[in-house]
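Hi L.,

You mentioned the student needs an example of a multi-chain input paired with its predicted structure. This one should do, with 833 residues in total across all chains.
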Amino acid sequence: MFHVRRASPLHAARAPVAAAYAAALVTAVLAFENPLVLGAIAIAIVAAAMLAGVGRMLLRAALFGVPFALVIALVNPLVADQGLTVLLRLGELGPLGRLDVTGEGLIFGAVLGLRALLVVLAGGALLGATVDADELLRGFRRISVRSALTAALAVRLVPVLGRDARRLADARRCRPGATPRPGAAERLQIVRAVTTGALDRALDVAATLEVRGYATPAAKGGRRHLREPWSRHDLAFAASATGLVVLACGARLLGVGGFDAYPLTVVATGPSEWLLAVAIVAVAILPFADRRGVLR
Amino acid sequence: MSILRFDDVAYRYPSSREPALRGVSVDIAAGEFVVAAGLSASGKSTFLRAACGLVPHFHGGEFAGRVVTGGLDTREHGPAALSAVAGTLFQDPETQVVLSTVRGELALPLENRGHGAGAVARGVEETALALGIGDLLERSTHELSGGELQRVALGAALAGRPRLVLLDEPTSQLDPVAGDELVWLLRRLNEEWGTTIVLVEHRLERCLAAADRVLAFEGGRLVCDAPPRGFLQWAAERAPALATPGARLFARAGLRPPPSGVKEARATLRAHGLLAVQTPPAAEQAAPPLPRRGLLRRRVVGTPPALAFHGVWHERSGGRAVLRGVDLALAPGERVALMGRNGAGKSTLLRHANGLLQPTRGRVESAGRVGLLLQNPNDYFLADRVGDEVGAEALERAGLTALAGRHPRDLSGGERQRLALAIVCDGPQPPAALCLDEPTRGMDRAAKGDLAADLRTAAAAGSAVLIATHDPEFAALAAERVVLLADGRPIADGPVAELLSGGWYFATETARIVDGALLPEDGADMLRSRMTVEVRP
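Structure written out for the whole complex:
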């Protein structure tokens, strides 16, 4: 997931603010189990990605995340034994004991799967595609040079190893008798070759960081920034991130957006929950309304 | 004043039994332009790594002696501290770029030295202007081609205006035009700013004319330290593989002294009256013939082509057309060099030959299997033993049977290339066509000669050979026909003797010295024929 600068209000915001916005969406996901509220957050994430021009990247991340979400959704009913609505009795299964698949287990599994997917989308795809990692690391370097060095190395290695894997896959296709699509064994061979070469590549990148002076004492101080005034987009997304966190915390304190998974599923869907859902979507997408000065 | 001094330096990498440097002593003065020459694994790159402090701080191993870079002893100062004095650029551009935007990449060394925002912004702009990469500043480094990445990496090495610049084969990914421009940019930095340049390069003909001094390495030892002309005289006697085509031309023609560049060679020939008098070209000869539709296909009319492209287009979704209606055919056993600037579409065309890419319009036909050797031979190695990569017969044909038990990555550059070639050619029948993408990157002249011989053998066995290359000397050695690609379509197609002579960039050094000759041997014959002695009775 690469950051490519686009003409969007979110890309125009400074990296720490954009990262805080994505983190606020993740916080909201983690704060609620209520499907109505989670649905609103999902709408907010998808709308934010579309408005930032990274909808396609979000879709790609979803294709990667959905199988994991499904696994979580399917495993939960097998391990949960608290629901009252038994749908399927699987009997005694050795060390697992008696196994009953309940409606409540299925619903809660789906909720957990949805939350995992939303965390991947907001904390992975949206953050990766809209936040300039270099700018973020630059700030981080002032706090800890070594940690920032490791992070910079990791960030750079991802595309390098990705390119290596693509080249190895192409080279495999150039072998006599190779099929256009690699089988499982061939994929494993490629992954193994990339992994074997990863240390060499990491050393090369680390050597480059060394000779560029990444670890010098002057670097620790970082660039002496001209005090860059906060743009309208910095302010808008900072306000939005704060608003999302306040909404999440406030709702939790006031008991809005409640959800009981067991023994019977109870989903609060009163006016306050609907109001909360609308507020989350509105707070999340309002900063996109102002497109003035979106090119930095 | 010395800017780089080696005092009896010896070094052995931790994983190696043999020392990479043995008793190297050298003193480089500020403002010198130094070229480091030598065959592969002779110690040139290790010399650079010792100069920038990576040896021994980063690589470990056994180190003896003393290196002083810009007044800093490398035993006491690590590479990060030395980066304030020395800008360094290594071979592989993909690992030379560490940030996600070009602007960020150029700003990094300046920020690391604690410059203020204004100085950083100015430094970035100046570097971008000097290297002609202003249009790349806002681009993401993930989107750049190899040549673009190399220029950006060079920019990062130069951005801090270091007093010493250490470069390891910076032109390996560049086309002849960009390569020549880079060498002259370095010369300009050297002359205008007094920057000391230490440049490791295999294609010496490219940079010798700009150099003040040449260091030659052999087996980790410094075996020659002389001005270019002195080095060439030494190379003629002691290391012919290091002699430039111009020097070999002069040696074969019995002329002295060996020239360090085209200008010097032509001046010598002119002084001896050996330069052919140029007549103004006739109108029909003045411009190269324009390609006509079907011209490139007619070459093989009568014999079914081994490989043919029929109106091949490759149009990127939402992007530019990389190939524009390419018509090209190769006869069985024909050896063709595909040349052109970075981004002309050479690699894309090769990828269409064996089906890695599909044309968006047009079609590709072949008489059988098409083998494709991509740029990096390492990409072909999936096993832990050389013997597990290909069958015994193919291994024997490649002359690698004795190395069957070794790990592929432990082979030398030339051996890796031969193994990768054996992998793509492996099979009961030789491929109908064999395509190679920049196969000589990082190779010394001896290994290039071996590869050219292998390709002639493959062609003799009936395979058509198509080589995308930036190296006119290799093209002259390995090919019989040259196709020049520009903006996604062939703009010239003809015999190698015709296409690689008479030009400025896409021409061998011999052709630039002696009109009408391509290789030193032909040029020497031509010069000898002009050395007529009038005998009076």
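You could point out the following to them. The domain at 295-523 of chain B is CATH 3.40.50.300 (Rossmann fold). The longest helix of chain B spans residues 176-193.

Best wishes,
N.
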